[in-house]
Design brief:
CATH architecture of the largest domain: 3-Layer(bba) Sandwich
Structural class: alpha/beta
CATH topology of the largest domain: FAD/NAD(P)-binding domain
Strand order of the largest sheet: 5-2-1-9-20
Largest sheet: 5 strands, parallel
Strand content: 25-35%
Shape: globular
């Protein structure tokens, strides 16, 4: 019996297990997934927890229940990958593999910034990229009386690059509804030269920041957090004071990758951008946030990757050439507050543009334009995630590669 092993039961790992188990002969292939944690989190929901839009129960489920029943589920800590021996060492056993899929994701690393884990951590400094951080921030916001709110990105790449912008927009809406927006000064601080990584999208989002009276501080490369002065300081000694700092710390791949000697400086694994095969080991494939591919680290990207990677693993097993198919496709809703959202659709080479999605002229979703429809699309995604995406069911009318139907590439026409 041959063995296909998946490391990580988050979004990407769960999808791969559910995609591949029905496609591999049960009398030939044993499929196993390993993760040390019992709970599977709907991570896009962490954005909504601080504003009491979602409850805890809406963003978590027992991970094992989401995996195909004919997949072996092992809940243990992964100590090390030994690629030259096709083995993975767990906390109390070693298992072999013929094909390995690494889907161990990325995590925040606040210890990488001087002073971030100082006395103000979880008192006046919070993250919302973890379940615990989002809940702690929710409790803080419920009683906060106002002041200088700084929303900050430490460095790129980060998981879901639009999430910090969404947080700033939702904070504006949240404080307006509470009747205290005049008591809150919101500043958005980024290491980028604009509001976002893509120029056209950056222009549209910078306009929204200005419209909502959110000050933009670009090109800020943080050196330290000064806990005594309650300020973040960059390498040019520029200081930005805060009363409440909501930060996205450095994102890094799992420490397992460093222990195994498979990653770069941030523990992301060098991966073929189009086939998702490891550059160092042909029987190892990488998906989701664990890769170093220059695509967004977002759930939608993992979803599109999973469809290509499923095909490629089946091709690899049968000895055929892999498809160089994955194009970096990302499709992301951006909450802008007041029950509206933007939608962006892009890939490695094509930045977000205006138009309609998924159908030309019909839509009903509009690209790079605020609409209530887009907001409801964002909220509906939670149902799609639990009931379709994780199960490996294709989302109707949404292709794995970026479609150019409905896109308007002449920005002047809009």
């Amino acid at each position: 019996m041959k063995k296909l092993l998946i490391l990580g039961a988050g979004t990407a790992g769960t999808m791969m297990a559910n995609h591949l188990r029905p496609k591999l002969r049960s009398n030939e292939w044993d499929v196993t997934i390993v993760d040390q944690y019992k709970t599977h989190y709907y991570q896009p929901g962490f954005l909504f927890l601080p504003f009491d839009t979602y409850t805890e129960s809406q963003v978590k489920k027992v991970g094992k229940k989401l995996i195909h029943k004919k997949v072996n589920y092992i809940q243990k800590k992964i100590e090390k990958i030994i690629p030259n021996e096709n083995k993975v060492q767990l906390e109390d056993e070693t298992i072999n593999y013929d094909v390995l899929i690494i889907a161990t994701g990325s995590k925040i690393a606040p210890q990488e910034t001087q002073g971030l884990l100082g006395p103000l951590w979880k008192k006046d400094i919070f993250d919302f990229y973890t379940y615990e951080g989002a809940l702690a921030l929710r409790n803080k916001l419920r009683d906060w009386k106002g002041g200088k709110l700084v929303v900050h990105i430490t460095e790129m790449p980060i998981k879901c690059p639009v999430a910090p912008l969404e947080f700033a927009f939702l904070a504006d809406s949240y404080f307006r509804k509470k009747g205290m927006r005049d008591k809150v000064d919101i500043t958005y601080v980024t290491p980028l030269s604009g509001a976002f990584t893509k120029p056209t999208c950056s222009t549209a989002l910078a306009y929204l920041l200005k419209e909502k009276d959110i000050h933009l501080e670009p090109d800020f490369s943080i050196m330290e957090v000064d806990n005594n002065q309650k300020a973040i300081v960059d390498y040019e000694e520029r200081e930005i004071p805060f009363d409440l700092l909501v930060t996205v710390p450095t994102n890094m791949g799992d420490e397992l990758i460093e222990r195994s000697g498979l990653g770069d400086d941030l523990n992301f694994i060098p991966t073929d951008h189009n086939t998702l095969q490891s550059k160092a080991h042909e029987n190892i494939f990488v998906i989701g946030d664990a890769t170093d591919v220059p695509a967004s680290k977002a759930g939608s990207v993992a979803h599109f990757q999973a469809e290509t990677l499923t095909d490629n693993i089946l091709l690899y097993i049968d000895g055929y050439k892999l498809k160089k198919e994955f194009d970096g496709h990302a499709n992301c809703f951006i909450e802008t507050g007041n029950n509206k959202a933007l939608l962006i659709d892009f890939n490695y080479k094509t930045e977000p543009v205006h138009g309609t999605f998924p159908f030309a002229k019909i839509g009903p979703l509009r690209l790079l334009k605020e609409s209530v429809f887009n907001h409801w699309g964002k909220l509906a995604f939670r149902w799609i995630y639990w009931n379709m995406l994780l199960k490996g069911i294709a989302i109707p009318f949404v292709s794995r590669n970026m479609s150019f139907k409905g896109k308007v590439f002449d920005i002047k026409s809009k």
